[in-house]
Amino acid sequence: MDIQERLSFFASLYRVDENPEAGMWYLYLTIFALCVVVYQLGFAKKLPLLKNVVIYAIMALGCTVLSFLAVFLPMGEALVIAAFVLGIYKYRLHNSRTEKQV
Predict the structure, then answer these.
(1) Are 42 and 55 in contact (CB under 8 A)?
(2) Are 66 and 27 in contact (CB under 8 A)?
(3) Are 83 and 44 in contact (CB under 8 A)?
């Protein structure tokens, strides 16, 4: 079995098998950006600056593990779906709140 067939979408998009160093950095940045989007859409509250720094530092460490898993597992794809679902939820919540105010 060829390794190219086993790669996830983002790993094959960034060609992790041909250029592992740059590909893994691109994959890490993609996973981190998607995690930030999902966090902002679903879980973020207004916090002081230092608490936000701690949260994002821990998120960066967690995304390191996720980026290694994302080479063969669909971690990035799952984060895209989660961001899409949370975006729809936020949009509908905003619409229902504006209808109640009128």
Answers:
(1) no
(2) no
(3) no
User: What distances in angstroms separate CA 19 from CA 15, 32, 40, one per listed residue?
Assistant: 6, 20, 31
Residues 56-79: tens digit of each pLDDT: 999 999 999 999 999 999 999 999
> Tell me, what DSSP letter sits at residue 7?
S
Q: What is the pLDDT of residue 58?
A: 97
Cβ burial 19-44 (10 Å sphere, 16+ → b, else e) = eeeebbebbbebbbebbbbbeebeee
Average pLDDT of the residues in 12-32: 93
Cα–Cα distance list, 2 to 17, 20, 75 (Å): 11, 16, 21
For 4, other C-beta atoms within 10 Å of its C-beta total 12
Average pLDDT taken over every residue of the chain: 92
